[in-house]
């Protein structure tokens, strides 16, 4: 293994994987090395460009902390996250489609009872989100959990505000015996992904805008069923056809219906206009 | 651009590059996105593996600081650095071959006169490194600069020792009117690349050892000539055929000849055994 050239270098690197103890690791790394080398060859990468790539990746890593995941943002904006998502969730027709997790999920969100307000204390237009969790046959699933989270009316998640503790605008609600859930929140707005880091710069270089259409995140889980990580998008949003992370599916776009002040469907008397949004999640039975 | 699937997602992401202002950037990113997606598809990457990759890249970035470049180490150990090097230095026969820069070069190394000792104060076996910088026709190049650096007798660079200021075991010497240079150092030893970070873990997972054969780094520059970034490797080293960064070329392997105490070729009277190593660097004329 000396005198390696453009021609035989890739084979030499791949040959060194022969003693990798884990077969799956060997398979993945073989593919990574093969495509990394092929990309370098294809574009005849210059040394200055190689160094710019080193500096970019370093800056992406440096931008990550316990509340910011710039590598997930990079994966999202390059469509890699949605590709992984699509390949890992070949859901049957009728099941709720999945979309990206995104970088703002926080484990251990507070438990909420149905009817609670996840946006308590936040300004914005009130919205009552309700729906069911159903089997593929349309039967209700009781005790299903919705782990929901969203940005505020200014397009920022709690973890993006230094004065919040990362437990706002998120929570876990459960379906009742009829498979129904409901909670209050504020109507989400379109927002840009964070652009103050290296991924923001690369979006600019790609000639792309950083906006995501308004949405509410949910991870829906129920014992005996396949979970789904998804969003509900707001109908009419101007970015539905140019989502910065390629996540929009028609089946996830729903109407936020506006209502004048009065009694809301859950009995709450609203003194201001409010919105209702309804969505039924469908979960396939767990794989054997 | 909605309802993207495994089938059409890559095309959708590539299509968004159409308005990238810089054509070269567009070309490079197209290749990066194409190969990133192809790799994910080829191995059917799971979500857990995707997340492990995110965590790995984040850890690589976190390990970088002003004295440690873990992404360069990753590039080196995956053979990417040598591939970029090979493609960018298709040197004519007779010119000194290039090899990796590595992560330990420091700009602004101290100027040294010929005969100086770059390892002054460091334990180890003394070695007198001498040679010429020559044109392709074998004529001497006066005033050529050698920016040299190496690890100490324990295999560590100055920047790896927290008590040093990063200006030891390195320096810039210049050829005299006869195109000749010479300096004292200590005989280098084989050493492992840093294994206390995420790249060390990935080498372990690949079933590879982390060692590099003993070498002295040099960047040789001269006005009117193409520069070369290279090493001189020690003949007989046990790792010449399994360099962790794939950098060894036969033309760069030289003998460290051992001598009993006495007068060295530069007139220095040595009271202990010492080594001599001679290497002539050949530089092609600068491209027009």
Please write out the topology:
The structure is a homodimer of 288-residue chains.
Chain A: H1 9-15, H2 23-43, H3 47-63, H4 70-77, H5 80-88, E1 126-134, E2 145-149, E3 170-174, E4 180-186, E5 191-192, H6 198-205, E6 211-212, E7 215-221, E8 228-234, E9 253-254, E10 257-259, E11 262-263, E12 269-270, E13 274-278, E14 281-282
Parallel strand pairs in A: 1-13, 1-14, 8-9
Antiparallel strand pairs in A: 1-4, 2-3, 2-7, 5-6, 7-8, 10-13, 11-12
Question: How would you describe this protein?
Answer:
Two copies of one chain form a homodimer. Chain A is 24% helix and 21% strand. Chain A is an alpha+beta fold and 288 residues long. The first copy, chain A, has two domains: 9-45; 75-282, Aromatic compound dioxygenase (Protocatechuate 3,4-Dioxygenase, subunit A, Sandwich), CATH 2.60.130. In chain A, a hairpin with a 5-residue loop joins β11 (262-263) and β12. The first copy, chain A, starts with 8 loop residues before the first helix and ends in a 6-residue tail after the last strand. Chains A and B meet through α1, α2, α3, α4 and α5 of A and α1, α2, α3, α4 and α5 of B.
Quickly list its features.
6 helices; five-stranded mixed β-sheet; homodimer; alpha+beta; 288 residues; Protocatechuate 3,4-Dioxygenase, subunit A; 21% strand; 24% helix; globular
Structural class computed from helices and strand pairing of chain A: alpha+beta
The fraction of residues in strands of chain A falls at: 15-25%
- Count of DSSP strands of chain A: 14
CATH superfamily of the largest domain in chain A: Aromatic compound dioxygenase
Shape of chain A: globular
Q: Report the top-level CATH class of the largest domain in chain A.
A: Mainly Beta
Mean pLDDT of chain A: 95
The biggest sheet of chain A, with number of strands, parallel, antiparallel or mixed sense and barrel status, is: 5 strands, mixed
Q: How far is it from the N-terminal to the C-terminal residue of chain A, by CA? A: 47 Å
Q: Count every helix of chain A, treating DSSP H or I runs of 4 or more residues as helices.
A: 6
In CATH terms, what is the architecture of the largest domain in chain A?
A: Sandwich
What is the H/E order of chain A? HHHHHEEEEEHEEEEEEEEE
């Amino acid at each position: 293994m000396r005198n390696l050239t453009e021609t035989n270098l890739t084979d030499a690197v791949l040959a060194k994987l022969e003693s990798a103890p884990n077969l799956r690791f060997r398979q993945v790394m073989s593919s990574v090395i093969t495509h990394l080398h092929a990309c370098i060859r294809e574009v005849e990468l210059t040394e200055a460009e190689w160094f710019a790539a080193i500096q970019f990746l370093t800056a992406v890593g440096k931008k990550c902390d316990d509340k910011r995941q710039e590598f997930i943002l990079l994966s999202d904006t390059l469509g890699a996250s949605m590709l992984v998502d699509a390949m890992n969730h070949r859901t049957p027709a009728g099941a709720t489609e999945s979309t990206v997790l995104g970088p703002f999920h926080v484990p251990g969100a507070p438990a909420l009872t149905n009817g609670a307000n996840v946006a308590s204390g936040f300004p914005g237009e009130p919205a009552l989100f309700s729906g069911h969790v159903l089997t593929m046959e349309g039967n209700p699933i009781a005790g299903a959990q919705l782990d929901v989270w969203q940005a505020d009316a200014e397009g920022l998640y709690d973890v993006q505000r230094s004065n919040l503790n990362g437990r706002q605008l998120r929570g876990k609600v459960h379906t009742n015996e009829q498979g129904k859930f409901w909670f209050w929140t504020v109507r989400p707005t379109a927002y840009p992904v964070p652009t103050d880091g290296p991924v923001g710069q690369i979006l600019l270089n790609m000639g792309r805008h950083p906006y995501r259409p308004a949405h509410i995140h949910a991870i829906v889980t129920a014992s005996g069923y396949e979970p789904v990580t998804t969003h509900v998008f707001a109908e009419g949003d101007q970015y539905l056809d140019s989502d910065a992370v390629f996540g929009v599916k028609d089946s996830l776009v729903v109407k936020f219906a506006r209502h004048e002040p009065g009694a809301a469907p859950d009995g709450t008397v609203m003194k201001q206009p409010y919105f209702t949004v309804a969505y039924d999640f469908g979960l396939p039975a767990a794989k054997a």
